[in-house]
Amino acid sequence: MNISIIGSGYVGLVSGACFAELGNKVICVDNDSKKIASLKKGIMPIYEPGLKDLVKTNIKMKRLKFTTSTKEAVAASKVIFISVNTPTLGNGEVDLTDVENVARHIAVNMTGYRLIVEKSTVPVETGEKIKHAISTYVKRKVKFDIASNPEFLREGQAINDFMHPDRVVIGVESKQAKDILVSLYQPLHATLVVTDIKSAELIKHASNSFLATKISFINAIANICDIVGADVVEVTKGMGLDKRIGRAFLDAGIGYGGSCFPKDVDAFIHIAEKIGYNFELLKAVRGINRQQINLFLNKIKDTLWVIKDKTIGILGLSFKPNTDDIRNAPAIEIIKSLLAEDAKLRVFDPQAMKKTKAALSLGNCRRPISAALKFCRDAYDTSKGCDCLLIITEWDEFKELDFGKIKKLLKRPIIIDGRNIYEPLKMQKLGFTYIGTGTKGALKQDE
Ligand code: UGA
User: Fold this and answer.
1) Would residue 68 be called left, alpha or beta, if left means φ above 0 and alpha means ψ between -120 and 50 degrees?
2) Ligand 1 binding residues, C-beta < 6 A
3) Atom of ligand 1 nearest to the CA of 155
4) Does residue 436 contact residue 417 with C-beta atoms inside 8 Å?
5) Whose CA is closest to 80, among 157, 5, 162?
6) Dihedral angle at the C-alpha atoms of 60, 63, 66, 68, nearest 10 degrees?
7) C-alpha closest to that of 348 among 340, 339, 357
8) Cα 115 to averaged position of ligand 1 atoms, centre (Å)
9) Whose CA is nearest to atom 7 of ligand 1?
10) Nearest CA to ligand 1 atom 21
11) What domains can be seen in the chain, in order of their start residue?
12) Best mutation site among 260, 323, 392, 417 for ligand 1 pocket (most ligand atoms within 8 Å of CB)
């Protein structure tokens, strides 16, 4: 099938490369000419395992092309996916400027029947608005359909998620649109949920918000565990074995970050409010998430007492492992808070150093950033002379460190773990003061 993807961000680029890999002819469009020029040379704007090879192979096989021209893409494609940015405005409302802009461009360039599919995360009823915009701006009387096909891929494992989805959601209002999308996804042999457009849009909101709810729920339980001296890892094991609950997305920690959950929870609260429903449950989910970073910062203060002039090591900057994405990453907020209290920081991340440097050079800190913040070579370099070491992102390489070496390098053998990647008792036996998230109980077992 000839398809176009308008917007070559995370979702657009991964979807485009994967559709090409499935044998389709794909044109990826973006209005950022620098990005398109780099992509043509096989240079990725993001770090995503496997993506570079997939893009390069499909360019070579002439199944994948990049352009800045929506006109060229619309002329050549029967199916056009919209996967542009949908940021939130300060109040949680989703900014649909780019979606509307793309809809207009598609409308004026359509030469025959087109299926326009929204893949960006958009508020319910956006499909209707796209339809209205296209009907308004279309030049000739050409037929078209609108569909919703939300994406559920996770950064860091996006290709696998695309190729082996739990389900593919297809929201349509005509048989022709349904047939096209069913046949496009046929090679994946996935479970298809074919429904109406509004329900498809809501499936995306509901799924992300439910996952965020699981995370905030387990974080609330972790906070209770810390108070009473229980172990959240054990509680999670016991809960997760109940098939009705499931173990996934019950890892307690410093809360959810990234470009999706914080934005999508805000947006869903706002959408509900607009239609007259007060989504109190989601407001609490958001509140708990915001609280997690403060509780983590309090643990640092409780341990070190005065932060000023203390040297603190930070392992992990990206919002989660296997990505260089630092959008809404807890590490950035933690760095800013500690620098504001005049700490000296030594930090390391396997992929996100460049983006962190760029983000923090604009930071409003009391000391010159270079003097207070040192970007280190690895976990060992980070540990040198530190009063404590913080685990912020659970990269695999932090799980298997030489702890004898780490202990010697630290000024004081204190580890505060925001992701519970170590066994508390083991760390205690190795001579560390180990402070996890909801794992106080695990330290007491042998006493
Ligand atoms: C999320 C969804 O998982 C995807 O299905 C969806 O397609 C995507 O948003 C999107 O809307 O585009 P993503 O943001 O890439 O994907 O990352 P997740 O793996 O879901 O993690 C989100 C955050 O939750 C991370 O900060 C992670 O550290 C945190 N998390 C996750 C926890 O704190 N505990 C957990 O048990 C799981």
Assistant:
1) alpha
2) 121, 151-155, 208, 211, 215, 249-251, 253, 256-258, 260-261, 319-320
3) 15
4) yes
5) 5
6) 150
7) 357
8) 30
9) 152
10) 256
11) 2-203 (3.40.50.720), 227-435 (3.40.50.720)
12) 260
Tokens at residue 344, please?
Answer: 């000296």
pLDDT surpasses 80 at 323 = yes
Q: What single string gives the DSSP state of each residue in 79-136?
A: EEEE----PBPTTS-B--HHHHHHHHHHHHH--S-EEEEE-S---TTHHHHHHHHHHH
Phi, psi of 139 (to 5 degrees): -80, -50
Q: Ligand 1, residue 329: give the atom nearest the CA.
A: 26
Q: Per-residue pLDDT tens for 129-183? A: 999 999 999 987 899 999 999 999 999 999 999 999 999 999 999 999 999 999 9
Report CA(354)–ligand 1 centroid distance (Å).
22
pTM strictly above 0.70: yes
Q: Which residues are CB-neighbours of 265 under 8 A, at least 6 positions away?
A: 208, 209, 212, 282, 285, 286, 289
Residue in 202, 256, 293, 332 to alter for ligand 1 test, most ligand atoms within 8 A of Cβ? 256
260 is catalytic: yes
CB 356 within 8 A of CB 323: no
**Across residues 351-373, what is the average pLDDT?**
77
- Residue 315's DSSP bridge partners are 348, 391
Catalytic residue among 18, 28, 260, 376: 260
52-83: b or e for each residue (b if 16 or more CB lie within 10 Å)?
A: eebbeebbeeebbbbbbebeebbebbebbbbb
Six-digit token pair at 258?
């990234």
d(CA 283, CA 299): 25
Structure tokens at 29: 């469009």
